[in-house]
Write a structure and sequence with these properties.
Elements (H helix, E strand, L loop, with lengths): L9 E5 L7 H11 L3 E5 L2 H6 L2 H8 L2 E2 L7 H15 L3 E6 L5 H4 L9 H24 L3 E11 L11 H25 L2 E7 L5 H4 L4 H11 L7 H12 L10 E4 L10 H7 L2
Helix pairs in contact: 1-3, 1-10, 4-6, 6-7
Bound molecules: nicotinamide-adenine-dinucleotide.
Nicotinamide-adenine-dinucleotide binds next to helix 1, strand 5 and helix 8.
Length: 270
Amino acid sequence: MANNLLKGKRGIISGALDENSIAWHVAERAHEEGATFTLTNAPIAMRMGKINELAEKTGSEIIPADATSVEELENLFSKSQEVLGGKIDFVLHSIGMSPNIRKGKSYGELNYDWYQKSIDVSALSFHKMMAVAEKQDAMNEWGSVVGLSYIAAQRTYPFYTDMADAKAVLESIARGYGYRLGKAKKIRVNTISQSPTKTTAGAGIGGFDSFFDFADKMSPLGNALAGDCANYCIFLFSDLSKMITMQNLFHDGGYSNTGISEEIIEQMGK
Ligand SMILES: NC(=O)c1ccc[n+]([C@@H]2O[C@H](COP(=O)([O-])OP(=O)(O)OC[C@H]3O[C@@H](n4cnc5c(N)ncnc54)[C@H](O)[C@@H]3O)[C@@H](O)[C@H]2O)c1
């Protein structure tokens, strides 16, 4: 289903760890749609993941960067322009990590050093990326920046603890930079609020499998898969979505607007 939607566009795709990663699917689709891009991830994830396989498949160069380090992000944006031969048209922020979730801390027991780490990795890195892009004037007019979020930014999900706060910050940063970069260069900034998805980050959350099934039964269309999310990202990177900015866009099969479904009522009655 390739339509050359990104033909001639240059991008930076973060967060592809393995073939389950949402970013992995985005890279595959962006390649199919004619984009050229660099791949990036934290140096430690490079050793654990399979990013080399993806780079080979998509003809992309890997530029390691810890997304909490402004210096490493500066290198990422300057090297990417060098490698790709011009300014950047699209950026995917697909980065999330909470030490508190990893260690199973409840919301009332959060370790504050780890809390700051969660916010830094999962939200401030989005700000840092755009700050670097702006200072280097690294992006073309009508460029598009997309971050991945979750509905826990609006509603409480007890197991999502400090990541819920990080996602709220992420979505706010999309509005702040959406205004600023929109005024300066017509660059669009949005977040996609994605269904629960079976990835390394997803599986790290307590009770994920039950919650995945619950959301699937609540959503009239079922959960959106990583591949569906990739298609939505491609649309947002393309010129078809030129006037969409500063939005948090639900991509969840209808979950966010469903009160209760027949399937859940049936299950509760058992
Ligand atoms: N899986 C879900 O259920 C779900 C639902 C909604 C939103 N999201 C969001 O989608 C995004 C991608 O996650 P995923 O589900 O594809 O899981 P994933 O584990 O495949 O991807 C998360 C990525 O973040 C990277 N990362 C962590 N710390 C980093 C750092 N310091 N610097 C650079 N990269 C770092 C990891 O190496 C990994 O590649 C995240 O923002 C996540 O919160 C996931």
